[in-house]
Input
Amino acid sequence: MTKADLVEEVTKLGDLTRRDSEIIVETIFDSVIGALRSGDKIEIRGFGSFRIRQRKPRIGRNPKTGTKVEVPAKKVPYFKPSKELRDLVNPVGKAPQSPTTPPAEPAGSGEGSTAA
Output
C-alpha cells in the first residue's frame, strides 16, 4: 500500500475531499516523525509502537572493494507490532503451508470414507 492508496482509503470513509484526506494523512505522518525526532515513543494500542534505537559505531566492509570502513553511531526508527496485529497477520490454528506440502484434506473426505 502506498501513501496515495492510504489517502484514497481515508477519502472513502466519509464526506472528505481528496485534499482533506491528504492533509489528514500528512498530519499523522508529520506527528509520528516529529515525536521520534524529539525522542518520544509513539504507542498505538492494537497496532504497535514506534521508537528510536541507538546503534553503536562499528567496523563495516565495502562490499565492492572489501576494504574496512568505519560506520558511525546512529539512531534508527524501529517499529514493534502489537500482539493483536501479529495475531491478525498470523491467525491461530492456521499453520503456514510449505510450498511442497499438499493442503490437508478435511476429515471424512477421500478414499476409505464410510460417509454416504
